TrEMBL record, chains A, B, C, D:
This is Cyclase family protein. SUPFAM superfamilies: Putative cyclase (SSF102198). Pfam families: Cyclase.
């Protein structure tokens, strides 16, 4: 540490002017120095694709299903406060500040292994007494928060079926999954994270409304898809529907059977509301359905779900 | 899509038993199928290090500074509800559900370019009227939500200075940054994300209390660090202190001068409360201070900050 | 209901000027027409009637209008936690604990005098700079929190009109108000709190749905009702609709003209979503339309509205 | 203050049994001692005194105790938004809008009968399974929301003891209560709401800090006060401390014994954080310690507590 003298305001202002980059990447630029990033050969092309739905009041939830409402964004200090002098006690700098309140399933999310119980047991056989008002003492999302990152494989089911999007109620089988992988010339193996595109978000966009997206009928994985998923030792499965499995379920006797088989028993993370439209387009352009997939949950201690901002690296 | 018949409960239960992996990775396992992941040569060693502080009520905020309190985690359905029969109308499956309310700066976070104003202008010259109670209409965090991913470089300043941690009030200069990079045998260049370890979190842990971590004195970047940062075309800077710059600031005339120079003018993302302790240990073990760094903000529309769960890939 | 013509902006502005009371009780006054109240001896039988709608997720708001959602009730400790031993460190006693998050207009509520601006002025002539992200520095609800208690008078308009409930869009005039009071044999005078029943809640109940109750068409006070209200020196007006005035408004040139005339200029508290069904029944049984009316807002510092639990004492 | 010995668990349990009123007003009763209230003609002068502490971020809670933080007030639309044109689509009128998030015990509040359990039973003998994440299905605050209004009697204990305020740890006995009533020349009888002033808020104000007000030592009702309270058929008891009873409790074997005896068994509403300073002054001025007391909880369905804005009418 060099001994340094106290600087004055003019010095700071000179530095502000010297390093001002407003307009350096066009007048409309809002990404600043991130424009410098040109991802390297660590990953092959450096192309990055986001698989998250924006978190805002236009999200698909209405609060009708289990109290899942859209994220509420709250400004604690805003430009009006600055204009009216609320921060005039500060030298030069003014700031804005905000907060959010959101159900943890309300957008692109992973379920924790503590999210689902079968005969009063969650993954590992732990009982209901491990999830109290304080959160999950076992299988909380923080236990896997750094773990959902690895090789990702997109299976573009509408592409395989030759349709724009699958229809609500259409169930995907093990044979379908194997067929799609084959046609896409991609192998799926131990530790892969499999992303299932059904086109359900594309359909909602085409129709201009979320409609019953949050809890209604949807295409998705059927009971018979679990063989392919488990035998291939898939680490995690996510989809562009609410909870990845077909609705109505293809059994009347068990509600959301895949949550029981895959999450509670096989310990497979399940993710919902992933926006896979851009990803499918890029995979097609790159003729490549595998990528580095980084989608860490937040380390929310004891949470039974977490929003995520998943990125695919090509 | 193969035509498939409706399955019954016994079929689902058989699948549950068949694919049950409880105990497959030890009786205490809470990561499930993620154990299958063995990151490949996409990244060199596959070793992944989290740089996030856990989000919980033990976080460093008390609400005294600008209303920044710790995250509040809320259970909407828990094990008690299941035990008392609240979900007995569902076939077989039972679920837990939760929500969170949190200030967006309260843990490991990135500031949006809309977070700071200088002479009523934010990055790009936009005025205060662009941040209202509805959020930021310019430079909101969603504009860079998929952008904070690329080559990361850790500069371990206590390692360079030969101390356990830097002292509150100690300022880091451009010369210090260049010296640390040189000693660590790492080059810093255009587009890099630079992580500055001061040891401030290690100090809090050693003392067993956050004390004034949230808003008090801290080591960090001094005004004279901006030359090295800007001339090297660094894309983003984060640190293990509240807001990366030294407190008290090394000027009395400007509050938080680096926010003005780096964020408002040079458009450089600034991140705070990154936990860099494990990262420093791993960098030393690997003798390698560069890595793929993936730390996307959440796509919270109009937000002026976002929590993040940053991962370093070796 | 007299047939009435649509009024224009100049008409509303003339009424604003005519009934403006800024300064009538001193330049610093923030209590408005509540200054008229001089509580009397009114309680005779001890019969108490609640005029609040229950606060729960069955309330009329959906979040579509201005972010007004229903109250969210959150359990912090519940019976499940007790059953699972979370409080076993306590001797003998076990407790439950909860919290609420609610928009302040979402149920039975009073508007503060800081709720409405006309030509950038609120009651007393204070500008928009007095309401920042920190709340209202002038005319916040706490300024009248102990003031909304005194003689209450119910005007049962459907009773007067001989209908079950008024129709959406039907406007009440000064003549109607005078007529109803006359028929009910009740005098209205200085300091009275006037409760207007339109039957709009009865209609929603009969139809089994809130429908567009929160922000759609509604019966209510028309522009021409203000003469009777102001000339009688009424202290506060509330109704069983969202905001007491007829929707669509009976002028196309001014949105919610009564808020401008009565609240901004005459300083009269306006309350909405009061459930007056039981009250109307009891008034009829008692043949008495006056009562001690106690409906204090909460002393939420700087708030621009407050929920209330109004009680009428006979 | 009589010197009193520490009581044991059996003593408390005997009192619980002795004053148990489960079923006294029918097996389904959820209103407890409020059944004693028969409101009278009490209002004489019209003088009104508020007994609420302001609800704001200066309230006594820090979040350290059971997650009870101060109320958070959130502006949804404010003057800055109006100034920046966010509502320019509206004709003439501009509005502000807000919301609040608050623990229900965080300010002046009543406990519901569902707030406390003893041997897994609450008032009326209902089990823990009646309070789930959805709230209290029995004894929720809405069951008494219109009931806490009637004759109020202030017992000014520091006045009786001839001190400015009682000291933390000082316990009030039945004899003290009887003595204070006698000296104040007021009778206490069936259905009365008794307000106990200890001066604990006056002490905090004199010291300029809430200190450990929220959960630390406090003066208050001792175990031996319950005889006077129950035998007089008091309907509700509130005080100017957190939860009305002395801290540390005058038994080591039972935490908060009065909550068990009075609330769980005798069905007596208990209120805390009532600001009784003005009330004591007015009672002295009027030489009258009885008044009409109106302090309705909010009708928050299933809540186990509620903020209230209590008013005393002279």
């Amino acid at each position: 540490m060099t001994t340094i003298e106290k600087r004055d305001r003019r010095y700071v202002e000179a530095l502000c002017r010297r390093y001002r980059r407003w307009g350096a990447w066009g007048a409309d630029d809002e990404r600043g120095a991130l424009n410098f990033i040109t991802p390297e050969v660590l990953v092959r092309t450096g192309r990055i694709v986001s698989c998250a739905l924006p978190f805002d009041e236009q999200s698909p939830h209405s609060g009708r299903f289990g109290g899942r409402h859209n994220p509420m964004h709250i400004m604690v200090q805003d430009g009006g406060d600055i204009a009216f002098g609320a921060q005039d006690h500060l030298n030069e700098l003014r700031f804005t500040e905000d907060a959010v309140a959101m159900p943890l399933h309300c957008g692109t999310h992973w379920n924790a292994l503590a999210h689902i119980f079968h005969q009063r047991r969650m993954y590992g056989g732990h009982g209901v007494e491990y999830v109290t008002s304080k959160g999950a003492a076992r299988n909380g999302i923080e236990k896997v928060a750094d773990g959902i990152a690895g090789r990702g494989v997109l299976l573009d089911m509408p592409g395989y079926f030759g349709v724009e999007w699958m229809q609500p109620g259409q169930a995907i089988t093990s044979e379908d999954l194997a067929g799609a992988a084959r046609e896409q010339a991609v192998e799926v193996g131990s530790g892969d994270i499999v992303l299932i595109r059904t086109g359900h978000i594309a359909k909602a966009r085409a129709e201009g409304t979320w409609g019953s997206y949050e809890a209604g009928d949807a295409p998705g994985l059927g009971v018979d898809s679990v063989h392919w998923i488990c035998e291939n030792e898939v680490a995690a499965v996510c989809a562009d529907t609410g909870e990845a499995e077909v609705r109505p379920n293809d059994t009347d006797e068990v509600f959301q059977p895949l949550q029981l088989i895959l999450l509670v028993n096989a310990g497979i993370q399940l993710g919902g509301i992933f926006d896979l439209e851009n990803l499918a387009r890029v995979c097609a352009e790159e003729s490549r359905y595998e990528f580095l997939f980084v989608a860490p949950p937040s380390p929310l201690i004891g949470a039974v779900a977490s929003p995520a901002h998943p990125l695919a690296f090509f």
